[in-house]
Amino acid sequence: MNGGKWEGRQVISRDWIKRSIAPHANAREDIDYGYLWWLQPFKLGERKVPTFGMSGMGGNKVFVLPEQDAVVVITTTNFQMRGAHPNSDKLLTTHVLPVLMQETPR
Predict the structure, then answer these.
(1) CA 47 from centroid of its chain's CA atoms
(2) Predicted TM-score (pTM) of this structure
(3) Structural domain boundaries of the chain?
(4) pLDDT per residue over 24-52, tens digit each?
């Protein structure tokens, strides 16, 4: 967020951020991969909400939603459970996105 600035100071190169969240490989249908970032749009009704994010073990995820100026962190303990990542995605789409979209209509 903020183009790599924190408290007014550039801590990560703006150019590096731009390159890291650009598609470099197609991972699955409608999901690309940057430099360690999953580039995944989520559907909310008819709208596609672009995100880039990180995935960790057990369904732990960090989603960056540039249009909503938000970062969403989902932590779980679903280790060795089938469907841990889709469950985290569902938390985002059913509980978090509807609230964020109310606050940032576009």
Answers:
(1) 16
(2) 0.85
(3) 2-103
(4) 999 999 999 999 999 999 998 889 999 99
